[in-house]
């Protein structure tokens, strides 16, 4: 029996695979904690190894998106090599070990470093958390590929290569790693401002969906008003008769319960008046999103700025509101469907105060002087308080 090689042996590969999985898992935990805005569960274990003192760079001196881009590109290339080595003859432990060592020495810790250097006070919490999620996904999917490395001295059998019985296979796993890397690579081209524009557009589109749904419900109410006054009584009688005859299915009963209530014809609680006011101001709020994107986010100074400013802090405060408003307006819509005037009033007040606050926080441009948006924001604030 030939003596085992020191570097190229199967035993050496097994140890290296475990080391790679261990490091990747630790960094995954760190990035996941950052993405959720939580401290790492165990800093002594989860934090990436500290670089030598002479290699330490301040966040503002490093282009974190370029670092993330280059690291993701390297992970993508190494994942491709790894994928080919584990499915093609001859199976060469030394070649696989070389790829793993290069990953451990460079792109894997660099991915984590890019997130660590993307600090909220310079790049915004929005960008930091987004980058953390994307980089976390790279490490998670890469770990899955490393775990697929065969340790029996043979290449992967067909079922582990192509997938079977719930296992997606190494080829699909490689494709997922590529997709995760591409998401990070894209960020360099997108830039911080581009990322913020993309997120604001997503929030605005969700808000528009709420507006469209509420408007459709309003139109349905108008159409139903043209029907018979006794229609609701007829519906109740129909359900009662059905129960007595045991002809109403469980699904029919559920549908009746889930159907939103109708605004009474005489509307003693002035639901329609509230609805009209809400729709007008909700339209104004969607316009606010578009104006903010065009006049403030797309005109952002390059981040990080050369001098310390409050730009990142202002953006984080605004985006906290921009993100939550669609959900809050969804609560308003639900209150209308239930004809709950108390909740309608309180939820609407909360939403429109938030919209007013966004206009106030962004009224002054980044340069500190007034501009066209400043005047528009003043008019918006007047209208949002009194739409009529």
Low-confidence stretches: 1-7, 41-47, 49-56
The tally of beta strands, per DSSP, is 0
What characterizes the major β-sheet? none
SSE sequence, one letter per element? HHHHHHHHHHHHHHH
Roughly what fraction of the amino acids lie in strands?
A: under 5%
User: What is the share of helical residues?
Assistant: over 70%
Gyration radius, in Å: 29 Å
Distance between the termini: 92 Å
Sum up the overall morphology in one term: elongated
Total number of helices: 15
- The assigned structural class equals mainly alpha
Mean pLDDT: 86
Please sum up the structure shown.
The protein has 388 residues and is mostly helical. It has helices at residues 10-35, 43-46, 64-85, 93-105, 107-117, 120-123, 125-147, 158-162, 169-225, 231-245, 250-258, 271-297, 311-337, 341-361, 372-385.
Written description of the protein model:
The protein is an all-alpha fold and 388 residues long. Helices cover 72% and strands 0% of the residues. The radius of gyration is 29 Å and the shape is elongated. The relative contact order is 0.09.
């Amino acid at each position: 029996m030939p003596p085992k090689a020191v570097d190229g042996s199967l035993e050496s590969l097994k140890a290296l695979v475990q080391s790679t999985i261990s490091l990747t898992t630790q960094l995954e935990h760190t990035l996941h904690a950052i993405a959720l805005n939580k401290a790492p569960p165990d800093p002594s274990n989860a934090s990436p190894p500290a670089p030598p003192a002479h290699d330490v760079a301040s966040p503002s001196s490093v282009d974190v998106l370029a670092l993330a881009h280059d690291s993701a590109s390297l992970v993508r290339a190494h994942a491709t090599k790894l994928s080919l080595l584990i499915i093609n003859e001859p199976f060469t432990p030394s070649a696989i070990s070389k790829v793993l060592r290069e990953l451990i020495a460079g792109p894997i810790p660099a991915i984590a470093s890019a997130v660590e250097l993307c600090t909220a006070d310079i790049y915004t919490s929005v960008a930091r958390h987004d980058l953390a999620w994307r980089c976390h996904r790279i490490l998670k999917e890469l770990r899955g590929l490393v775990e697929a490395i065969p340790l029996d001295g043979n290449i992967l059998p067909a079922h582990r290569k192509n997938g079977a019985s719930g296992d997606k296979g190494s080829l699909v796993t490689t494709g997922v790693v590529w997709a995760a890397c591409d998401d990070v690579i894209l960020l360099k081209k997108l830039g911080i401002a581009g990322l913020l524009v993309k997120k604001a557009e997503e929030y605005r589109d969700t808000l528009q969906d709420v507006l469209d749904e509420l408007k459709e419900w309003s139109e349905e109410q108008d159409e139903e008003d043209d029907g018979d006054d006794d229609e609701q009584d007829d519906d109740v009688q129909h359900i009662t008769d059905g129960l007595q005859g045991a002809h109403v299915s469980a699904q029919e009963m559920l549908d009746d319960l889930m159907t939103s209530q109708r605004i009474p014809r005489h509307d003693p609680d002035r639901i329609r008046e509230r609805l009209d006011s809400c729709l007008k101001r909700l339209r104004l709020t969607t316009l606010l999103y578009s104006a903010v994107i065009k006049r403030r986010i797309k005109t952002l100074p390059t981040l990080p700025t050369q001098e310390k400013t409050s730009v990142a802090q202002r953006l984080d405060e605004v985006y906290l509101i921009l993100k939550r408003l669609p959900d809050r307006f969804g609560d308003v819509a639900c209150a209308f469907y239930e004809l709950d005037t108390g909740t309608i009033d309180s939820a609407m007040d909360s939403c429109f105060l938030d919209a007013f606050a966004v206009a106030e926080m962004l009224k002054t441009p980044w340069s500190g002087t007034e501009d066209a948006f400043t005047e528009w924001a003043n008019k918006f604030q007047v209208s949002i308080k009194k739409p009529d």
